[in-house]
Amino acid sequence: MCGVRVNPHLNHPFHPQHLLTLLPKSPYKGRWSCDFCRRRPSSGFVYHCDPCKFDLHINCALLQSSIAPNFPTSLHQHPLFFIQDHNDEVNRDCSGCMKPLSGPIYHFSDCSLSDEFFNLHKQCAELPLEINHPYDRRKHPLTLLPKPPTHLHNCSCYLCKIQWEGFVYSCSFCKIELTLDDFFSPQTITNASHEHPWTLLSRQRSFVCDFCGTTGDRTPYICAICDLLVHKNCISLPRNILITRHHHVISHSYSLPQQDELCRICYEEVDTRYGSYHCSASDCNYIAHVHCATDKAVWDGKSIPEDYDERSMVALDESINWITDVVEQMSFGENTVAVEIKHAYHDHNLRLTFSGEMNVDGQCDGCMRPISTPFYSCEQSKCSACRRNGNPWDMAYRCTKRCDFTLDLQCATLPLTTWYKYDRHPLTLTCTDDSDPSQHYCDLCEHERDPNDWFYYCAECDNSLHSKCALGDIPFLKIGSNIDKPPFNCHPHPLTIVKNIWDCPPCKFCGEVCNGQALQCKESECNFSIHWFCPAIFPRFSNSNE
């Protein structure tokens, strides 16, 4: 703001009804947003109109703008302001092409119309109102409309499928509608990934894209030499990518031998007559749908260069070892053991412990199972570099052999064995129970067991435990760990994972005592304790912040 004169009062074209007053911050204590850019700042000067509850960030208020003359009322009934440079203040989509705003823009907002917020790229604002386009074979002119015509609720046309909301060119006689994306599509596209140019086929026709295997119903691009039809977006598919689900580079191909394959991401069938991503390593048969492999959940959007060295990628894969350095080794006969290491997930060195005093409630920071010798531990006091927490419902494991067997992450990572303090032997994870129904009880809580649910069992002592009883309510979280963001925003303070034995406090949600593992606020005089799952079961209380 240096060198810019700031007036205490401003007559602004975005709000001509009243004079705006400069304030050090917005007078509203709750959430508010600038009526131009609609962003919510944490602080800063604003120009304010109290009767209209109208605010402008000071940066937005000082933007240079002018009224756009002769803008067609068929596209917008109110006058628009032309802004040559909005300094990236407006982080919204164009109301015409529905793509992010950039460069010069046309803008309208009205404090009396809370939902009226209209922005256009300069290119979209200056489109011709009528065009002749080869897509309409009857050669009718197409008329520019500010929004798609009203369709029946069960319509399955192109616009309804993609849920288009912006400008369209329309012919009401032929029932033809052209999005701005279609209108701006070039007649020819050349891409380094294909040796021939692609030509736009301006026809309303159904096709299966040869590059991704999904259907389209209009304006494909064609390579007449290779006899290929593809979506416009698929032309730029990267040749080689690296995804989180596989340790080799996978490559796009549309000419694999026809065979029965399952996508290794969604485990649905892959039609190898069309494009897919596959692993070219000699001993690997990994394959994935194009839309699965390029999903942002598994791919970072970066392509691997054509001249990449496969050996370097193998070396990269082999280097993914969480032990980053061996500080000290010790020999035991012919065996050499690393007794001090550096670990990727910890700031301090870890030393190998063979025996000695152990906390009976000690847990491994990797798998959260009870610790047993030998193990690596940090000798630094008050160390919490590895404490973290995950949601076991975010992903699942599924059988790859065409059956419906599926496990969520919580069940898939259940330990195969565990210990019960009243049994000398380890208890084994058991999937079925053919014993007499009268024996279907848990030896710890003494409540009935469902014979179809997995449980832990000792055959020698005939002890059976619910998996929850054997492992605790939250077996994969470390006792003493802090959760900075409590589940479902159930409490304003961080919560600590505790294990209650005596003087168990009641749960703030269900009222039952928090015996065993629970979440507890350590703030003085807060007295807040809950079971781990209660915020999900009683969501109406989750925002009470008791």
From TrEMBL:
Record flagged with keyword rRNA-binding: no
GO molecular function: metal ion binding
Residue ranges that the Swiss-Prot or TrEMBL entry lists as coiled coil: none
Cited Pfam families: C1_2
Alphabetical UniProt keywords: Metal-binding, Repeat, Zinc
Organism: Gossypium mustelinum (Cotton)
Source organism, top-level taxon: Eukaryota
Residue span(s) of domain Phorbol-ester/DAG-type: 195-242
Stored InterPro entries: C1-like_sf, DC1, PKC_DAG/PE, Vacuole_Formation_Reg
Protein name, per record: Phorbol-ester/DAG-type domain-containing protein
Statement: the UniProt record of this protein carries the keyword Glycoprotein: no
